[in-house]
Amino acid sequence: MKNKLKKITLLFTLLTYLSSYSQEKFNFDNKGLNDYLVLNFKDKTKSELYSKTINWIKETFKKPDEVINSKIENEKIFIEGISPSTLRIGGGSSMNAKYRIEIAFKEGKIKFNPTRLEYYTKEYGWNEIYINENAKRYYKKSGKVRGLYSELITDIPSVFNNLSKGLENYIKGKKKTEEDW
């Protein structure tokens, strides 16, 4: 009986630990990009997080009014932006990345959810990069990355990790100041 109780306690402790663990960064594999990140900010209200996110957008992007696609006050912000010379395919030159992200708010939390990623070529214009269920096309049947996409699969999460980290640092007060230049 004691042994069974120890096992149940251990299992409960393990499950509690795993459920409290949150994904800290984006990763990309043959199933695609992990769906979203939850950024935690203890003692910050939903409206504070919303307001600080609006300020981050205004300070981060050259044309913030064009970056914000739509917003529901204190609930969600949908942004679309471009990261210049960010994505590489087949060892060629770096291409611009256009992304769409849904940012949702709860008390003490932000959900950072990339919904689309595209790259630009002069020949074909904007082309979608599959970041979800169709990501398996970047991998061989053996599970190894196709050579053409070896750089791309590291660039994809970097786009979103850099943005989410920038937002997180801004809200935590770790933004660059005039003196940091």
Q: How would you summarize what this structure contains?
A:
This protein is α+β, with helices and mostly antiparallel strands. The chain has four helices and eight strands. The chain has helices at residues 2-20, 46-60, 64-67, 152-171; strands at 28-29, 32-33, 37-40, 68-72, 76-87, 95-106, 109-121, 125-129.
Describe the structure.
The protein has 4 helices and 8 strands. The model is unreliable at 7-22 (pLDDT under 50). It starts with a helix and ends in a 10-residue tail after the last helix. By secondary structure, it is of the alpha+beta class.
Mean pLDDT: 88
Low-confidence stretches: 7-22
What percent strand?
25-35%
For the largest beta-sheet, the strand count, sense and barrel status come to: 6 strands, antiparallel
Coarse shape: globular
The helix-and-strand class reads alpha+beta
Helical segment tally? 4
Query: Compute the gyration radius: what is it?
Result: 20 Å
**How many beta strands in the DSSP annotation?**
8
The termini sit apart by 64 Å
Helical content class: 25-40%
